[in-house]
Design goal:
This protein is 27% helix and 33% strand. The protein has 96 residues and is an alpha+beta fold. The longest helix has 18 residues.
Length: 96
């Protein structure tokens, strides 16, 4: 199933990001079979990160949660997340 994870950070997460950034990127690489797309979210270009977004291909919501909670960025005091099952509209890339 395709799952979208949307992460929301509080400002204190910025320091955690600095400390665990490389470990987080390594984790994403190690799990790229299930984390298809991932990246940070900002309110505007060049501003601090305020969250993130992953698109995952997993067997269950429980598996998605297990992956998220194994990430070095997982810090419930600084970051929350929501999961949504996603139905992709197009199987082929759309050219705009």
């Amino acid at each position: 199933m395709r799952v979208v994870a949307v992460f929301t950070d509080i400002p204190e997460m910025l320091e955690h990001r600095k400390q665990y950034g490389q470990a987080h990127l390594d984790f994403l690489r190690e799990n790229q079979a299930e984390i298809l797309v991932g990246g940070g979210l900002r309110d505007e270009e060049g501003s601090d990160y305020v969250g993130g977004l992953w698109i995952m291909e997993v067997d269950s919501l429980a598996r998605a949660k297990a992956i998220i909670e194994s990430d070095p960025y997982y810090m419930p005091a600084y970051r929350t997340y929501t999961l949504k099952v996603w139905g992709k509209a197009f199987d082929e890339p759309v050219v705009i």
